[in-house]
């Protein structure tokens, strides 16, 4: 009846006779049952312990995943700093070498295009400097006047925050030398004498044509990062002069110098190709102080004295990259803002990973660790939240919060397997439902225009589709091989766009429930937004690029103003502009689709999230210094 090899029962001692009577057999069965019952309870406790350990391991997995991304971002930042320092040292050596040329040496060296020991890009700068120096001397300009600082063409106005501290200290040492111009404000000033004199242009020698070392057969399409900018005490005439009669723009020598000097070798090559193709300086029209802009003046004219290197590039179907010549109405016209003014700071108390604005614009919702706080911004003096919605676990961060179009329901997701649905119509907001998925975290949310369906980007790569009326999971879109990080839906509710940590952007047909397109990139996707009025999709990447894709054509635009990963992105309701934020503390506003920079705001910490009000009058951002910032958009 009992198999051999079974463990001895607790009641049977070795050497004792077996029990054969019916009562004894019943006692033995009873004891066996009690033993099995105890074993069952032991296994049940062990199973519960394993389940709790699994939950804890999933939590640690998400935590280590986040740490991995932070370390990866820091690694990219350090590599960029090392590359920036290397290029800066090369240019400084070339400029110092050029300063030591005398008139006696000039005539013997003017026919030499290269100097030994220097890279081709630096040799091109050096050669152009010699040619220009010769022209200035021939026209009666002495060296003292040539080196005189001119505010209208100072490359200091184009210096970005990426300049290293070692370079700044070296420049300060240079400025202390006798005969070196003193530092000045980087704010551009308009001067009447910024146009070169009539005696300078006609005597430019034919030898000022583009040197062979700057030829660019096919510009690279990958690996391009934010253009490096170097502030220095040297004036503009070290660069290539564009001919004012050829492009119809106000030319300054400093613009050409800044355009070549402030870029990486890949960027400078593309800029040189633009000089040959368009007959113009590789400077894109950009207004760093839009609130000082004169109405009606073309941006290509107002931006040159304090302009930046080309930062917007058109990438054709065959991968060729060209700087974008912005149209005259790029930064003017109805619906295009001039700048944004900070009007309120909401001290949340924790890192703000998610923000959203109500319609009409009255309340702002900020998501941090374990809670969403509600702020009334109709009265700017309010410094405290009007209510607090405790969500998820206290130690888990909110990653996304979305209002339904009627403004009466808020959906919250984050580092937990559940989504919380809040009823805001009651006097005190309350949770009316929770949606539970198999994924340990939700990274982003989207709501259908009819408010019937919610889409959640899960950390396992799936896109969960929820029926909000029945509060059930109706479908999962599977395709991303790593976490789905961002999402947006078309205004007609027929198409969904998702980005993932698997370096892909995918589109989904919501009527047929299938994948339509897939775009592959070399960088992880952190944010995206679909233009409400056009066929453009903006994508923010870990590599610091913003790419604007046409959804039906292969061409796209690539924008290079961020210096670190792009963490959030949002289109204005009018579709004419959009904003992006990043780990570089920047809020950038761009013109759709070609990416002319409308305005830029620098915050004190990484800007993790953003939203724009439905009337396009307000922007709110959430940052790593435990606050949200409210901006008023000025038109």
Could you name the key traits of this structure?
four-stranded antiparallel sheet; 9 helices; WD repeat; nucleus; coiled coil; globular; transcription corepressor activity
Description of the structure:
This protein has 9 helices and 32 strands. Mean pLDDT is 74; it is low at 5-10 and 139-306. The chain has a 6-stranded antiparallel sheet with strand order 4-3-25-24-23-22. Helix 1 (22-99) packs parallel to helix 3 (120-138). With 635 residues, the chain is of the alpha+beta class. The chain is globular and about 125 Å long.
Concise account of the structure shown:
By secondary structure, the chain is α+β, with helices and mostly antiparallel strands. The chain is built from 9 helices and 32 strands. Belongs to the WD repeat Groucho/TLE family.
Main β-sheet: number of strands, strand sense, barrel status? Answer: 6 strands, antiparallel
Number of helices: 9
Q: What is the rounded distance between the termini? A: 91 Å
Approximate shape = globular
Class from secondary-structure proportions:
alpha+beta
How many strands?
Answer: 32
Poorly predicted ranges (pLDDT <50, ≥5 residues)? 5-10, 139-306
Strand content: 25-35%
Using only C-alpha atoms, the radius of gyration works out to: 32 Å
Give the helix proportion (percent range).
10-25%
Q: Give the strand order, joined by hyphens, for the main sheet.
A: 4-3-25-24-23-22
Instruction: Round the mean pLDDT to the nearest integer and report it.
Output: 74
GO molecular function, one term: transcription corepressor activity
Domain Groucho/TLE N-terminal Q-rich: 18-112
Protein name: Groucho/TLE N-terminal Q-rich domain-containing protein
Region (Disordered): 148-228
């Amino acid at each position: 009846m009992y198999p051999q090899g079974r463990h001895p029962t607790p009641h049977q001692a070795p050497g004792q006779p077996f029990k054969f009577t019916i009562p004894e057999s019943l006692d033995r069965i009873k004891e066996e049952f009690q033993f099995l019952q105890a074993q069952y309870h032991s296994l049940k406790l062990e199973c519960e312990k394993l389940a709790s350990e699994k939950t804890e391991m999933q939590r640690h997995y998400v935590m280590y995943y986040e740490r991995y991304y932070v370390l990866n971002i820091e690694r990219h930042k350090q590599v960029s700093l090392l590359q920036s320092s290397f290029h800066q040292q090369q240019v400084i050596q070339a400029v110092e070498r050029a300063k030591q040329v005398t008139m006696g040496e000039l005539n013997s060296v003017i026919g030499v295009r290269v100097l030994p020991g220097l890279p081709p890009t630096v040799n091109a700068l050096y050669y152009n400097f010699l040619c220009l120096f010769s022209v200035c001397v021939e026209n009666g300009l002495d060296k003292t006047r040539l080196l005189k600082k001119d505010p209208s063409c100072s490359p200091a106005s184009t210096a970005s925050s990426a300049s290293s501290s070692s370079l700044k200290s070296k420049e300060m040492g240079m400025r202390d030398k006798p005969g070196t111009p003193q530092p000045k404000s980087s704010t551009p000033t308009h001067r009447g004498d910024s146009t070169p004199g009539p005696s300078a242009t006609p005597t430019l020698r034919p030898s000022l044509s583009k040197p062979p070392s700057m030829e660019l057969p096919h510009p690279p399409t990958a690996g391009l990062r934010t253009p490096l900018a170097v502030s220095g005490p040297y004036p503009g005439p070290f660069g290539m002069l564009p001919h004012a009669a050829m492009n119809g723009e106000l030319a300054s020598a400093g613009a050409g110098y800044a355009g070549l000097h402030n870029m990486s070798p890949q960027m400078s090559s593309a800029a040189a190709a633009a000089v040959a193709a368009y007959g113009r300086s590789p400077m894109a029209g950009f207004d760093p102080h839009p609130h000082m802009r004169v109405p009606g003046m073309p941006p290509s004219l107002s931006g040159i004295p304090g302009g930046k290197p080309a930062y917007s590039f058109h990438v054709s179907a065959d991968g060729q990259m060209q700087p974008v010549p912005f149209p005259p109405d790029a930064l003017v016209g109805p619906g295009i803002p001039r700048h944004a003014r900070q009007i309120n700071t909401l001290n949340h108390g924790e890192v703000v990973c998610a923000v959203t604005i109500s319609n009409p614009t009255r309340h702002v919702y900020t998501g941090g660790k374990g809670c969403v706080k509600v702020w009334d911004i109709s009265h700017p003096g309010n410094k405290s939240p009007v209510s607090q919605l405790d969500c998820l676990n206290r130690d888990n961060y909110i990653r996304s919060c979305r209002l339904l179009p009627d403004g009466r329901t808020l959906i919250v997701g984050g580092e937990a397997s559940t989504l919380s649905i809040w009823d805001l119509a009651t006097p005190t907001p309350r949770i009316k439902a929770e949606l539970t998925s198999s994924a340990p975290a939700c990274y982003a949310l989207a709501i259908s225009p009819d408010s019937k369906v919610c889409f959640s980007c899960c950390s396992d790569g799936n896109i969960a589709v929820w029926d909000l009326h029945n509060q059930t999971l109706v479908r999962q879109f599977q395709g991303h091989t790593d976490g789905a990080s961002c999402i947006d839906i078309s205004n007609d509710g027929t198409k969904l766009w998702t980005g993932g940590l698997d370096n892909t952007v995918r589109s989904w047909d919501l009527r047929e429930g299938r994948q339509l397109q897939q775009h592959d990139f070399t960088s992880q996707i952190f944010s995206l937004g679909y233009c409400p009025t056009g066929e453009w999709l903006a994508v923010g990447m870990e590599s610091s690029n913003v790419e604007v894709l046409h959804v039906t054509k292969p061409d796209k635009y690539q924008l290079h103003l961020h210096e670190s990963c792009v963490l959030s992105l949002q289109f204005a309701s009018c579709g004419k502009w959009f904003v992006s934020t990043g780990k570089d503390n920047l809020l950038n506003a761009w013109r759709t689709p070609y990416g002319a920079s409308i305005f830029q705001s620098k915050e004190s910490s990484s800007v993790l999230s953003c939203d724009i009000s439905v009337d396009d009058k307000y922007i709110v951002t959430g940052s790593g210094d435990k606050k949200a910032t409210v901006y008023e958009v000025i038109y």
